[in-house]
Amino acid sequence: MLSTGAPPDWAQVEVAVPRPSGRLPGISMAGFHHRSPAPVDIAMVAHPSVTLLVDLSDGEGIVYDIHGRRERGSVVVGLLPGDFRATGRGVGQCLQIRFEPVAAAAVFGASIELTGTLVALEDVWGRDAEQAEDKLRAASSWDERFTIVADILGWRLRARPPVHPEVAYTWRRTLTSRGRVRVDGLADEVGWSRKRLWSRFRSQLGITPKRAAQLVRFDHAAHLLAAGNAAAGVAAESGYVDQSHLHREVKTFAGLTPTAVAAAPWLAIDDVAWPASSPNRSPAKNGERSPDLR
């Protein structure tokens, strides 16, 4: 059984993030040090990333649960996990790494299904997982840990061929448009048929372009709700037909009502741990140019 602890008291959690110079494209990291011995039970809200959670705690560690499937320790969580909870007790540390689907496909390859899964890291990386954890535990600072992870992931990114540039471009356009983009239009932009784009996108990223757009749009709406915006205004700004449409989509992705998502502890720390998730960020600030697809 999962523990019946409370959501975390973020005042008892130290959060560390890498220096801008240490970041990898499509990958973001944050370190969490929970100082309180109280039990914690937190529901995690879906976002447009594959997540690697490296448990650096002593003792029993963290338990993750998706629809009754439980894993303890370090795990990889695919897109659209549904009802996903994390529980634990005592002082502990965790390194969370978020991969945009394009980066996840390059780092994990075909070793993991990118949607709706919960997999132990050792089942994905084998002995490399234990070696990585040992290095991270021995590190004397979060900066050192971030450097170790950047080296590991950089090697993995170089070891596998990237996804098709047309697929990567489609993902970036979906992300920077906050999910408000038509698949037909994207197919025209990359010079592919709609059928070909749909097939390649699904096979390489584990999700259809339409579902990806819905997930990105939900993520933007969830952060607007968490920032205290009214549901009706969020629906209009995020591109939903009306407030009822927003309610249905939030229920689909999070299993919660918009009111519950607005108060979700999982989102309460985002401005600190994942500043790029701020609802006020502008796609124009991304700074990335579209690749030459010809």
Give a written overview of the molecule.
Residues 275-294 are annotated as: Disordered. Keywords: DNA-binding, Transcription, Transcription regulation. This is Helix-turn-helix domain-containing protein. It comes from Nonomuraea ferruginea. The protein is an alpha+beta fold and 294 residues long. The chain folds into 2 domains: 10-159, Jelly Rolls (Sandwich); 165-286, Arc Repressor Mutant, subunit A. Helices cover 43% and strands 17% of the residues. The chain has 13 helices and 10 strands. The protein has helices at residues 101-108, 121-125, 127-138, 142-159, 165-176, 183-190, 194-205, 209-226, 231-238, 243-254, 258-262, 265-268, 270-273; strands spanning 13-16, 27-34, 40-44, 50-55, 63-66, 69-72, 75-77, 84-88, 92-99, 118-120. Helix 3 packs antiparallel against helix 4, helix 6 (183-190) packs across helix 7 and helix 8 runs antiparallel to helix 9. It is globular and about 50 Å long. The chain starts with 12 loop residues before the first strand and ends in a 21-residue tail after the last helix. The model is unreliable at 1-5 and 278-294 (pLDDT under 50).
